[in-house]
Design a protein that fits this description.
By secondary structure, the protein is an alpha+beta fold. The chain folds into three domains: about 5-45, no CATH class; about 50-155, Uridine Diphospho-n-acetylenolpyruvylglucosamine Reductase, domain 3 (2-Layer Sandwich); about 160-265, CO dehydrogenase flavoprotein, C-terminal domain (Enolase-like, domain 1, 2-Layer Sandwich). Helix content is about 35%, strand content about 20%. It is built from eleven helices and 14 strands. The chain has helices at about 10-20, 30-35, 70-75, 85, 90-95, 100-105, 110-120, 135-140, 210-215, 220-230, 245-265, and strands at about 5-10, 25, 45, 55, 60-65, 125, 130-135, 150-155, 160-170, 175-185, 185, 190, 195-200, 205. The chain has a five-stranded antiparallel beta sheet with strand order 4-5-8-6-7. Strands 9-10-13-14 form a four-stranded antiparallel beta sheet, with helices on both faces. Helix 9 runs antiparallel to helix 10. The longest helix is centred in the last third of the chain and has 21 residues, at about 245-265.
């Protein structure tokens, strides 16, 4: 199949091309593999719009352009809460090319950065559209080509309220057996607004509603952690692949959620 690549100046033009059936080329870590295999889409669009690489920081929020790479995340001192996540995305070559926007649409078992953003309650700013869209909705609909993500708006978590854990068989850059992230804001020592997100526990990044219910309104202590761990895989449908079976993922989900929560409890 012949693939045609079109380069446009703005995100709006790129979004218009996508509405007509083109596939967007960002860092290329996924699409270039398809091009080399001869299975890429017939029409590909890319843009030189500098807005894709913007990083804007405010007191309570960060805005990260969809074209920002994992290496750029790691190099930015005010994105320290995302450094660990970005370091666990592939090896140096992938981190130098892989982008925040591309990771949102990475197929299973990839997409660990999207798991972290989902737990953080991030919003997607869409090119050519007004306002932003909850990442929960975007990830749920991502198979239907929801449009072009221009940037991600992400709340800045308070110290000790956000954690991420990735379990892979090959360190440090192996694909996930599973990954889990949690945001646990506290008021008066009680968890308010708990968010738990999983990777490799469904077809894409997904919230862990049962674990969230076990944590909400509770103090983060051994009893609460045990209850959340017991319910870790409830309501989830992990896939079976060459890395692990669905049974295995359900069996170990509680183990790794417990480890993450214990780390957060210790601060």
């Amino acid at each position: 199949m012949t693939t045609t690549v079109q380069t446009v100046a703005t995100l709006t033009e790129a979004a218009r091309a996508m509405a007509q059936g083109a596939t967007f080329l960002g860092g290329g870590t996924i699409i270039m593999r398809d091009i080399n295999a001869g299975v890429a889409a017939a029409q590909i669009v890319r843009t030189t719009d500098p807005a894709l690489n913007d990083i804007r920081i405010s007191s309570d929020k960060v805005t990260i352009g969809a074209g920002v790479t994992m290496s750029q995340i790691i190099a930015h001192p005010e994105l320290a809460f995302l450094h660990k996540v970005a370091r666990l995305i592939g090896g140096p070559q992938v981190r130098n090319m892989g982008t925040v926007g591309g990771n949102l649409f990475a197929p299973h078992p990839y997409g660990d950065f999207a798991v972290a953003l989902l737990a953080l309650g991030a919003q997607a700013v869409m090119a050519g559209q007004n306002g932003s869209r909850p990442l929960d909705d975007l990830l749920r609909d991502r198979s239907r080509s929801p449009g072009l993500v221009a940037a991600i708006e992400c709340p800045r978590p308070r110290a000790g309220t956000f954690g991420f854990f990735k379990f892979s068989r090959i360190k440090p850059k192996g694909v996930s057996v599973l990954s889990v992230a949690a945001l646990l804001p506290r008021e008066g020592g009680r968890i308010r607004g708990a968010r738990v997100a999983w990777g490799a526990m469904a077809a894409g990044p997904v919230r862990g509603a049962s674990a969230e219910r076990a944590l909400e309104g509770q103090s983060l202590n051994a009893d609460t952690i045990a209850r959340a761990a017991q319910l870790a895989a409830e309501g989830l449908a992990p896939p079976t692949d060459a890395i692990a079976t669905d049974w295995y993922r359900r069996e170990v989900a509680g183990v790794y959620l417990k480890r993450l929560l214990e780390q957060m409890e210790r601060g």
